[in-house]
Amino acid sequence: MKVSRIVINGFIIYIGIALFFVIMEALGLSDQIYLRLVNFVFVIYGVNRTIKQDYNDGTYGYFTNLGSAFLTAFTSLVLTLVSFLIYVEVQGGEAYLDRYVASYIFGGDPSLPQFVMGLMIEGLAASAIVSFALMQWWKDKVEKINQVDDADHTNQNT
């Protein structure tokens, strides 16, 4: 698990999500909640890239790669939330948020910190789901749990 790899791939996810958000905002589609599911594509790409690079470098172990995958997604989540906070403030703060929040499933009238906390919980759940799902794909490659790997347990005719 390389920290530089986690940060770079997290940044790649962040760039994808940020560009997609800006395009949706420019086209007036930011109120379409189903289009936000496209964010999963960027997260899946970046997390899979991290696991694949770890595997190619010989980093094995289910939990090592799971941690690397989750930290990659978490890095992008933090970058995205910080950018969102800045963007909302530039766009008018609470007035912009009131228009934006109407398309979300949050109840009531959340403040900016409450909304960001909701996004943080949503993002943590998505990060965990993507990380665990991709590790199911990679688990046989990164950990040989059904393979005997020591001399004492091999079938030797001596």
Structure description:
With 158 residues, the chain is mainly α. The chain has one domain. The chain contains five helices and no strands.
The protein's oligomeric status is: single chain
The total beta strand count reads: 0
Which class do the helix and strand fractions yield? mainly alpha
Residue share in helices? over 70%
- Radius of gyration, rounded? 20 Å
Number of separate structural domains: 1
Largest β sheet strand count, sense and barrel closure: none
The global form is: elongated
Compute the number of helices: 5
Low-confidence stretches: none
The H-and-E topology, N to C, reads as HHHHH
Determine the strand fraction and express it as a percent band: under 5%
Give me the secondary-structure topology.
Layout: H1 3-26, H2 39-56, H3 62-91, H4 94-101, H5 112-142
Helix pairs in contact: 1-2, 1-3, 2-3, 2-5, 3-5
Short summary:
This protein has 158 residues and is mostly helical. Helices cover 70% and strands 0% of the residues.
Any key phrases for this structure?
158 residues, mainly alpha, single chain
